[in-house]
Amino acid sequence: MAELDKQRAAFREELERRQGVEIPDEDPDVRGREAWPVWRAQKEAILQPPAPEIRPAEKVLEKAREGEQGS
Question: CA angle, corner 57, sides to 51 and 62, nearest 5?
């Protein structure tokens, strides 16, 4: 666990160091852009079509019917 804590601390330090780094603009009067921008999650879900309905094979339906009749 101590080793994991050391790795997390090292990662956190590197992340904090990179957050302030900017790529300079060609024009010295213009502020540069962030070198490693933070990804911001989308607020809306990505809509996807529903999964296709898979119909059971005829033999499976027959077995199910037999099971219902046997009860």
Answer: 135
